Amino acid sequence: MRIRNDSGTIEEFEKFARKNKLAYSIMPDLNVHDEYIEVMYPSTQAVQYQSFMNNINKRQAFSISMDDYINNATPDKHQEIQTMINNLSEEEKKLLNSSETIDNSEKKALWKFRMFQILMIRS
Question: CB within 8 A of 27, min separation 6: which ones?
């Protein structure tokens, strides 16, 4: 989810998540100039988060894909991500490649999620 970083929207979002006991993680900001922050949440809670997005202005919070998140990165952040991927340890590379999923798109999504877990730990 992309949330506009102004007019109290973040505070409203956090209050909503606490009240409804929902899990989320604020992602590293790959584009500090776009006035949004990105939040990841479990797909099992998508319905609850959709209700939050439906109750505020669509320009304040909306759903995005992991590809959208990556593609929104500034060129220097793209380079930083690529450098981090190139410098992963063998153990981290093994973690990224250890997926027993049936569907290729599911494997790609899991790989991206694991990559960002590693990036968040390293930052």
Answer: 37, 38, 39, 40, 69, 116, 120
